[in-house]
Amino acid sequence: MLREWPLVAFTVAGQAAVGIFLFAGLPLLLPAGAGGTAAAREARLVVLAVVLGLLAMAALLSLFHLHHPFRARRVLSNMRTSWLSREIFFELGFMALVSLGLFLVWRGKAGTGITKGIMIAAALLGVLFILSMSKLYMLPSVPPWNQAYTPFSFFLTSLSLGALSAALIRGLGAEAPSRSGVFILLSFIFAAAEAALSFLAAPGHGIFGYRSGPSLRPPGGAHRTLHLTRLALLLMGLSLIRGAMIAGEGRAGIGLGENGLLTIALALVLAGQIAGRFLFYGLFGRPGR
Q1: I need a surface site. Which of 118, 160, 182, 188 has the fewest CB within 10 A?
Q2: What's the mean pLDDT in 135-142?
Q3: What's the predicted TM-score (pTM) here?
Q4: What is the pLDDT of residues 186-228, one digit of tens each?
Q5: Which pLDDT band, with edges at 50, 70 and 90, does 16 fall under?
Q6: Residues 130 and 243 reside in one and the same domain
Q7: 201 and 108 in a common domain
Q8: How confident is the model at residue 177 (pLDDT cuts 50, 70, 90)?
């Protein structure tokens, strides 16, 4: 299970990149008169650079999963029938448009129609990237993966990490930090949905999750522990997000302040997502793994 760390890194980083782009990037780039101040321009550059960095890291780390990395160029050769080819195509397209958007913002063209069009197209490719990623794993030959849980989990990872990152970025920014409230609320909703999905529908462990038939393999006590750890991390993250909501309302709360609470909450939710992804890959044991 732990040997699947390249796939864990690829999927979580890729999904986080899409979520950050949707929640932190688009709201900065699409409003009318998006040219803005120097601080706004800097915020756009930072967000797009973070998204691009996560995508590049995901692509690089995914190569460690391949037995023959130099053959990776062939992965786009079967676009008609392969979800793997489509996944890589949409990822590369998303990276290209984000890179182009970063260049245009750096050139001071953030408020132009062409930049906004490119950003909307990038958002569409990002969503298709996650969709193709989830379809890739929904194989009839692997029943634990071939469940509605897979796309819901992948998209909730993107939404929860994206909204939480956007809330933190807005809270740290110089422009209207109070606007982070809606993103804090969204991050709470998405993280709560992820925790509920895990508790109710996680294959092998959720109350209503898929259960495989009798097996000669010994019971996976480590998997159960990882499932409970994931739930604990998500619930702790939720409690801190709630604390940030209270701090934002000006009521007495934990002394860390809104931004401090959001930072720790992001770390906890991210750790919970990573634990869940290791658990996901542990559902299907491949020879030699």
Answers
A1: 182
A2: 91
A3: 0.88
A4: 999 999 999 999 999 999 888 988 877 655 455 556 788 899 9
A5: very high
A6: no
A7: no
A8: very low
Q: Give the count of domains, the chain.
A: 2
Q: Both 250 and 161 in a single domain?
A: yes
Q: Which of 77, 107, 137 is the last residue of a domain?
A: 137
**Contact at 8 Å (CB) between 75 and 65?**
no
- CATH number of the domain bearing residue 169: 1.20.120
Token couple for 289: 């793994």
The stretch 136-148 carries a mean pLDDT of 91
Check: CB of residue 211 under 8 Å from CB of residue 204: yes
To 5 degrees, how large is the angle CA 166–CA 47–CA 281?
Answer: 70
Mean pLDDT of the chain: 84
> Does some domain include residue 129?
yes
Cα→Cα distances 182→173, 193, 248, Å: 15, 17, 11
117 and 168 together in one domain: no
Range of the domain at 152: 148-289
Residues 127 and 169 in one domain: no
